[in-house]
Design a protein that fits this description.
heterodimer, A: about 260 residues, mainly alpha, MetI-like fold, globular, B: about 500 residues, alpha+beta, Rossmann fold, OB fold (Dihydrolipoamide Acetyltransferase, E2P), six-stranded mixed beta sheet, 11 helices, about 20% helix
């Protein structure tokens, strides 16, 4: 009896379902991606898929373009999101909860529906779909992911640090750049990672908001994977993307050491 | 310039918060150049608000603040020649020790080699040489505090403001830092304004102490003045320990309490005026007496001389003596602390180098110069403005109260009246719901044989209550006033009765 209890109450036992889930849905797919990337249609080992990527100018161009779009989106989100987070985190700002609610509200709705609605909006106002619409849609979708981590670090920041800066002779502008900005960097890094990574691999938003005129790396992967004889090449592209994303997340991790921004 | 001896002048400064409550109420304070002034008070007394008004983080609602004769009431903090050491140090976590200290100098665009020299000197002053490259979060609390001090003094301010700088340190460290701060003050020769709730700290460090409570300055004086000559019960009770008793000034240099007459050295209170008497526990002399003494005898008499003669340390002379039985005796290191109960039920706290075991019958005396007389802030009655209601009740302190019908005879409904309630007649209930009003215990004063409480109602009125029951600060109580204890008078009598 006590043995059963011991088994039931041990942490190890409770971890099993999650371990199983991870194996099935995270590790196994990764192995499969790796396997397909390193084999040809007949299942023979080959490095040709990788070689193809480095000589395939369309793929590389699309990749660079996707990174560029992601960088633009991240910068716009940062420029729009930081001031919003800063205003919300001010002590005398009366309704930070309401503001936060307003920012989070669109996220209650599936992003595809929102994107379709955005397309309609552009049609109503007679605005052309394309690169501009794409950036607008991306920014609209990912802005909350930038605001939240920054708002969190700013809000947790000890106000006496800002007062100390004033006390030592810094005016508002100086104390903002010399104290508030450096101390909010963990939140900024989290925000960058959370916006940049999903934008690089996005494809549905691009398809909808550009009438399929602009292809992002995500769309490219989707194209290849759904075409049977190019499945292996698609796997290579996925792997490349994975490595890039992995690298950016490392960059985020190292710098946000100590005080983590994180989502709400 | 030059003529004005004051570096800081605070004139009639009040600070109201949005809810209308006063954080500071008509505060006046002048600080001389080079002085070490401590602002002392319990938490929430407004001491930090006053400091923040001087630093510029808060703007006074009214009144003005002068630095070196110049009005800075609305000047932003970065334009004031003062620097602050914050309670929780407020060091910049993203900068190392050197850059923290250099922060102010870099903003002033001082040349790099000068910065280096000045930072090194400031760190040396604060005993932190060699820590330049350390990250601030690797330092102990005491070290962080030293860096915070170096960061403030490196700018060579004319006034250094310190907001409870030692409150986060442990006892031993606190004592060391107190000595260091005192030395630093002497070395720098600048003005220090120091905020603390620790009376010992205030008494050891300062040239002058400002005692605050509820947004008002209660007394300003040297540490010895504050301790030996408290001007009111709050100061007497807050600084050190004291026996506070209700008494009556018979005439100059003659005071009555415990039913006895005592010589004292205070004058100018008037004749036959109720006062409070403050006696420090170390100022009462104790000696053993024969057991029948305590019950039978009171007042000065020759017979007790026999007991006294055996004890050389008790002063001889014609002193008023009184008697009691030791209830408890605790060893406190240097001295013993005894509680002595008189047959009339007055309890005294007494400190003596000699041990008097519980049960010992003792005689007590106090020298005239050790009897401190303070003005009574309130006498036996609470006075409230009231109004007679249509249903034969009286409305005051935001509630309607039953009164005896004869009390409102001759008053019209709606007529404004004055209500008088003796301190003794108010009942406090454990459960708020049982009272007509609810409130909380705001301030407690032990008066030897009873407690004098200030109860603050939820609407913010103060009610004074005398009781024998023991309550704690912050206890929630229900307030009951029996109908027969409420005295209703016309408003005209107000002026006379307040005399």
């Amino acid at each position: 009896m006590s043995k059963i209890l011991q088994i039931v109450s041990s942490r190890r036992t409770w971890a099993w379902p999650y371990v199983l889930f991870m194996l099935l849905f995270v590790v196994l797919p990764l192995i499969l991606v790796g396997y397909y990337a390193l084999t040809d249609i007949n299942g023979q080992f080959t490095m040709r898929n990788f070689a193809k990527f480095f000589t395939h100018s369309e793929a590389i161009q699309t990749f660079l373009y996707s990174v560029m779009i992601a960088v633009f989106n991240t910068v716009i989100c940062l420029l729009v999101g930081y001031p919003a987070a800063y205003v919300m985190a001010q002590e005398d700002f009366k309704t930070p909860k309401v503001m936060a609610m307003l920012f989070i509200l669109p996220m209650w709705i599936n992003f595809l529906l929102r994107t379709v609605a955005t397309v309609e909006l552009f049609n109503i106002f007679g605005l052309p779909l394309g690169e501009g619409a794409l950036l607008f849609g991306l920014c609209y979708d990912y802005l909350p992911f930038m605001i939240y981590p920054i708002y969190n670090t700013l809000q947790k920041m000890d106000n006496s640090l800002v007062e100390a800066a004033y006390d030592l002779g810094a005016n508002r502008w100086q104390s903002f750049w010399k104290v508030i900005v450096p101390l909010s960097m963990p939140g900024v890094y989290s925000g960058i990672v959370m916006v940049f990574m999903p934008t690089v691999s996005t494809f549905a938003i691009a398809e909808l908001l550009t009438h399929n005129n602009i292809k992002l790396f995500g769309s490219l992967i989707q194209d290849y994977i759904t075409t049977t004889d190019l499945l292996n090449y698609g796997a290579v592209l996925s792997l490349v993307l994975l490595i890039i994303i992995g690298l950016t997340s490392f960059f985020g991790d190292n710098d946000s050491e100590g005080e983590k921004g994180g989502m709400v | 310039m030059g003529k004005n001896p004051f570096i800081i002048e605070v004139n009639h400064v009040s600070k109201r918060f949005e809810d209308g409550k006063f954080a500071l109420n008509d505060v006046n304070l002048q600080v001389k150049k080079g002085e070490f002034v401590t602002i002392l008070g319990p938490s929430g007394c407004g001491k930090t608000t006053l400091l923040r008004c001087i630093a510029g983080f808060q703007v006074a609602s009214s009144g003005d603040i002068l630095l070196k004769g110049e009005d800075v009431t609305k000047t932003p903090p970065y334009k004031r020649p003062v620097n602050t050491v914050f309670q929780k140090y407020a060091l910049f976590p993203h900068l190392n020790v050197f850059n923290n200290v250099a922060f102010g100098l870099k903003l002033k665009k001082v040349a790099p080699d000068v910065i280096k020299k000045k930072v090194r000197r400031a760190l040396k002053m604060a005993n932190m040489t060699g820590y330049e490259e350390r990250k601030v979060d690797t330092l102990s609390g005491g070290q962080q505090q030293r860096v915070a001090i170096a960061r403030a003094i490196v700018n060579e301010p004319e006034v250094l403001l310190l907001d409870e700088p030692l409150s986060a340190l442990d006892l031993k460290m606190r004592h060391d830092m107190q000595i260091e701060l005192k030395e630093l003050h002497e070395k720098l020769g600048i003005t220090f304004i120091y905020v603390t709730h620790d009376q010992e700290e205030a008494l050891t460090l300062s040239d002058r102490v400002v005692v605050m409570n509820e947004g008002e300055i209660k007394q300003i004086g040297t540490p010895t003045d504050i301790y030996n000559e408290p001007q009111n019960c709050f100061v007497a009770d807050f600084i050190g320990e004291s026996n506070i008793l209700s008494g009556r000034m018979i005439r100059d240099r003659k005071v009555q309490f415990l039913g006895l007459e005592f010589d004292c050295i205070d004058e100018g209170f008037g004749e036959d005026v109720p006062v409070d008497v403050v006696i420090r526990p170390e100022d009462i002399y104790l000696w053993k007496v024969q057991s029948d003494k305590v019950q039978s005898d009171k007042g000065p008499d020759a017979a007790s001389q026999a007991d006294l003669d055996e004890e050389d340390r008790v002063p001889k002379g014609k002193f008023t003596k009184w008697y009691g039985t030791v209830q408890s005796c605790i060893f406190k290191g240097v001295h013993y602390e005894m509680r002595v109960l008189t047959p009339d039920g007055y309890e005294f706290l007494i400190q003596d180098y000699h041990e008097f075991l519980p049960g010992t019958e003792v005689g007590m005396l106090v020298k005239p110069e050790d009897i401190q007389i303070v003005k009574k802030e309130h006498y036996i009655y609470n006075y409230f403005d009231g109004e007679v209601t249509k249903n034969g009740k009286v409305r005051f302190i935001d509630a309607e109260w039953e009164v005896m019908p004869q009390q409102i005879e001759g008053f019209e409904p709606g007529e404004k009246v004055q209500v008088r309630v003796p301190f003794r007649s108010i009942d406090l209930q454990d459960y708020e719901e049982e009272g007509t009003l609810s409130g909380e215990v705001h301030f407690i004063l032990y008066k030897g044989n009873h407690y004098h409480l200030t109860i603050r109602t939820d609407e913010g009125h103060d009610i004074y209550v005398n009781t024998n029951d023991v309550w704690d600060d912050g206890d929630r109580v229900g307030i009951v006033i029996p109908a027969k204890e409420i005295l209703v008078e016309s408003q005209k009598s107000k002026v006379e009765s307040h005399e």
